[in-house]
């Protein structure tokens, strides 16, 4: 049959053959029927969650037709079923996710269905927080640019394409998240090849767009972003969508900058099965939406242009139905993950940072370094060794203005830890970020999924909180939720802690226990220059995300200086260091409390109490075996940390000692830590709030009395 395209927009796309147009229709139908099938299965309790892509199909198939799977990169949100079908994910694979099957390629039964992921097509695992994915997309796009600019990366040719696009989608509601604006900020500042698709169905659950967005029109708001190509379309119209996406993609492929397509769509199936839109959407509005149904519109187009008959459409629907039913039957019978596999993929199954491979010999080089010098040297040596390492954060570069660099000494971080890195490794690998912590971590996640090795800096622990969502819900969970198909090994270096005499509530915080509560991250907390170098190298070379906590007060002390132990010196994680021998009491400690514990132990000696001091060095994992072996010997234990006693990490250790070593205890486990207040500015108040040597000494004496 010859296509007779009467429709004005359709004329512009006569390059699509009849077969291609029918395939577009079939894909939309398949997407809708899969939603219907899932709804049925959920009603039968055969699956456990459903969220539909109904009403979004036209713009998504247009995106799928435009973009290139396994070439471009995809960060789709949960409505993007039609896109994922179009780029190659099969109905069976989708339904494997619905039933939580072992071989679900998106997650192995870890993540809800419709949270797409498929390594074969460069579809990076999605999470559920609205909007986090936009920063990953920016990082992934940046990774492509970095691969194109850093010729030292040996296998870079296989890792990027000169004209690749990173696609990311989100609802109009999610554009209210700060992360969306952080992403646009970076994408436009760096002219990154990102294609943002905003699927505006008018509601975020029950909240209408006018309440969400000033003027109710997101594309109007973003038109002022320099270099951003913006288009606003009816996303229920396949041809308008295809035109807009092709133009946007051409703009991005030509490296003119990022693009944003704002597509107005409909949402006929309520937000999810837990929502009933009749509660807040009047019947007339629902009827008006129904008239814009993209599938009905497209079949009308096909019929009115004599491209298909009613019988052919019915046959296509029956064929789709058959395909969906067959896939469902097969998926329902698929193997489920066994309970014994519940803990798989929290951490890398391939690289174990506690293993002997990370126990490399020390080869002392030169005079003692401070912790600052030790970290700086380690960063330099590792960046020389591995050109995939990129360093960014606030103020980490020497000077962002290239013309200034030869004229100045360089900043290199507010504490100078990254000084000289930009000069040595160039501004593609060492650069300042905007003042936006979520974007620092989120971009790192995106880069790491593409196998760069981000070593980012959060300027102060006190300001890590905007990045908490990215740390807790993204960085630490990427491997687990994707069934080990995606991972984001990266390092977040964070200056932490107080004792600054004037640091106040916002430059003195501790809080490692908060992150120890996030499965998937490793936490290192060195107290000496030598440990800082050895643990940082392990952090960089390991395959898991690492929070590397650097105590500001320890940066430039003389008591913890040490010789640089060479370019390959590593300390395995989970290996405590006995800083002082002792028979009567064991002090378990870390960070700035190590020195205070040593001083307390010296004092206790005068009372003939022999106290051992054990520096944990890493919090996750922590060295339980060594703690246990010393507790069995001393039968008395004090746990001393800078963080508040209330919910500090000492509580975890104390509970475990009480639970597993009760028979070996001759005294109650004592904890020493900060009072349950913020850290005050006035030095006397600070001293009263943070734990001092005298507090540890008192605990040692009290414990020794038993
Ligand atoms: C950070 C975060 N807050 C709240 C939620 C709960 N939630 C899930 S979807 C949703 C609405 C999203 O609306 P929109 O971005 O417009 O996308 P739509 O679902 O309408 O396609 C909300 C509030 C969430 N998942 N993540």
Fold blueprint:
Blueprint: H1 8-12, H2 18-43, H3 57-66, E1 73-75, H4 81-87, H5 91-99, H6 133-149, E2 166-171, H7 178-189, E3 194-200, E4 203-204, E5 207-208, H8 209-212, H9 218-222, E6 229-234, H10 238-253, E7 259-264, H11 283-290, H12 294-304, H13 310-332, E8 365-369, H14 371-385, E9 389-393, H15 421-425, E10 430-432, H16 437-449, E11 453-457, H17 468-475, H18 478-481, E12 491-496, H19 512-516, E13 522-524, H20 529-541, E14 546-551, E15 562-564, E16 577-580, E17 585-589, H21 593-606, E18 611-615, E19 618-620, H22 624-634, E20 637-644, H23 649-660, E21 670-674, H24 683-689, H25 693-704
Parallel strand pairs: 1-2, 2-3, 3-7, 6-7, 9-10, 9-11, 11-12, 12-14, 13-14, 17-18, 17-20, 20-21
Antiparallel strand pairs: 4-5, 8-15, 13-19, 16-18
Helix pairs in contact: 2-3, 2-4, 2-12, 2-13, 3-4, 3-10, 5-13, 6-7, 6-16, 14-20, 16-17, 21-25
Bound molecules: thiamine diphosphate.
Characterization of this structure:
The protein is of the alpha/beta class and 706 residues long. The protein has 25 helices and 21 strands. The strands form five sheets. It has a seven-stranded mixed β-sheet with strand order 10-9-11-12-14-13-19, with helices on both faces. Strands 1-2-3-7-6 form a five-stranded parallel β-sheet, sandwiched between helices. Helix 10 links the parallel strand 6 and strand 7. Helix 21 (593-606) crosses helix 25. The chain is elongated and about 100 Å long. The model is unreliable at 1-5 and 8-12 (pLDDT under 50). The structure holds thiamine diphosphate (TPP). Thiamine diphosphate binds next to strand 2 and strand 4.
